[in-house]
């Protein structure tokens, strides 16, 4: 009998018996991201091998930009979620999860290449962006290459449910990008509209990554949906925390210039909440800075954000979503991978402090 033919009750028992990482020390409740990476080191090495292999092209520029991207590293959080959820759902062989993790990373990287062109960014993960080194045209076209290679790999997996999930996800991401563009320089963006943007633009790929891991392990629809909901809430928590770090972090911590969101005319949650609490004069100062995408106003805007405790309030919202993520996890057998999913929800917020 295939795993997909089990009932959810049978599958939970099966997962408890077959989880391959039961012998691995379980991350402590306050486990660092480094501990989670160590737990998944072998699986992520396999993902990296797939990424390098699939990036190979007879077009030299694609190889150059691809190698630049791989060397840039980053947390590889989205592919990590694929392998973690696969393991948490009892997958013994994660060859399919490994390929799907690479697909997710290609989609994510393509969006970053396009984002950096749209945002005119020069720094990402502490290094020069591809568009800063090779120009906008090359970045956009290599982003297109990564999207198309991702879809080639999806077809290779030969599962219609996988292709539908990723097709719907990439379409939603593209719509989210356009929606964010429409709100550039708009100081009237509401919290609900802000959340709509980050659900589409960021969180939906977290959600898809988690569902893909469950699908690759043969989990039933209810488990898949729970993992999807976990990923969605986790993605929102991460993005809100990132938006806090844009005003509270430093280049070494966030890998980009502090105040980039303001310089791009983005109204994020710290600015939304600050406007709700500030004096009329301070509100107008924020509105002017957003409308004019004025990085020079960063110091004054920071003063207003701090005086209104908007960063703490924003972090409180992120904590709520992190809690929601944990509560959304399905009732699977405890394992190191399952505990790592819980730890990631805490890490999403703790990294800001």
Secondary structure: number of strands: 2
Summing up helix and strand content along with how strands pair, one would put the structural category as mainly alpha
Number of domains: 1
Q: Could you give the order of the helices and strands? A: HHHHHHEEHHHHHHHHHHHH
- CA-to-CA gap between the ends? 48 Å
What helical percentage do the residues reach? over 70%
Q: What is the CATH topology assignment?
A: Farnesyl Diphosphate Synthase
Rg over CA atoms: 20 Å
What can be said about the biggest beta sheet?
2 strands, antiparallel
Gross morphology is: globular
Top-tier CATH class: Mainly Alpha
Mean pLDDT: 87
How many helices? The count is 18
Task: Describe the protein.
- With 353 residues, the protein is mainly α.
- It has a single domain, classed as Farnesyl Diphosphate Synthase (Orthogonal Bundle), CATH 1.10.600.10.
- It has helices spanning 8-18, 33-39, 41-55, 60-72, 77-88, 95-119, 130-134, 136-157, 160-182, 191-216, 221-248, 251-254, 260-263, 269-277, 280-291, 298-307, 310-328, 336-350; strands spanning 123-124, 127-128.
- It has a two-stranded antiparallel ribbon.
- A hairpin with a 2-residue loop joins β1 (123-124) and β2.
- The model is unreliable at 1-30 (pLDDT under 50).
């Amino acid at each position: 009998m295939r795993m997909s033919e089990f009932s959810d009750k049978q599958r939970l028992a099966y997962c408890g018996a077959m989880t391959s990482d039961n012998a691995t020390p379980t991350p402590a409740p306050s486990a660092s991201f480094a501990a989670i990476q160590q737990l998944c080191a072998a699986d992520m090495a396999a993902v990296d091998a797939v990424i390098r292999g699939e990036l190979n092209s007879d077009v030299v520029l694609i190889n150059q930009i691809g190698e630049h991207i791989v060397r840039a590293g980053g947390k590889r959080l989205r592919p990590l979620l694929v392998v973690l959820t696969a393991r948490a759902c009892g997958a013994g062989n994660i060859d399919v999860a490994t390929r799907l993790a690479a697909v997710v990373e290609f989609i994510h990287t393509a969006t970053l290449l396009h984002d950096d062109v749209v945002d005119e960014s020069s720094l990402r993960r502490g290094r020069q962006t591809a568009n800063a080194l090779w120009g906008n045209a090359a970045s956009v076209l290599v982003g297109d290459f990564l999207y198309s290679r991702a879809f080639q790999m999806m077809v290779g997996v030969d599962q219609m449910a996988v292709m539908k999930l990723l097709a719907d996800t990439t379409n939603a991401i593209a719509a989210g990008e356009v929606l964010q563009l429409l709100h550039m320089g708009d100081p009237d963006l509401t919290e609900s509209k802000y959340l709509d943007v980050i659900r589409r633009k960021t969180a939906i790929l977290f959600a898809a990554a988690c569902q893909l891991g469950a699908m690759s392990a043969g989990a039933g629809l209810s488990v898949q949906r729970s993992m999807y909901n976990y990923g969605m809430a986790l993605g929102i928590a991460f993005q809100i925390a990132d938006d806090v770090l844009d005003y509270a972090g430093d280049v070494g911590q966030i890998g980009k210039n502090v105040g980039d969101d303001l310089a791009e005319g983005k109204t994020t949650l710290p600015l939304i909440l600050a406007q709700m609490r500030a004096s009329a004069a301070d509100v107008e100062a924020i509105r002017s800075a957003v409308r004019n995408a004025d990085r020079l106003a960063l110091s004054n805007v920071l003063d207003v954000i701090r005086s209104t405790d908007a960063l703490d309030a924003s972090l409180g919202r992120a904590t709520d979503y992190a809690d929601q993520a944990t509560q959304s996890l399905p009732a699977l057998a405890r394992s190191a991978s399952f505990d790592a999913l819980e730890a990631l929800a805490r890490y999403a917020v703790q990294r800001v402090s």
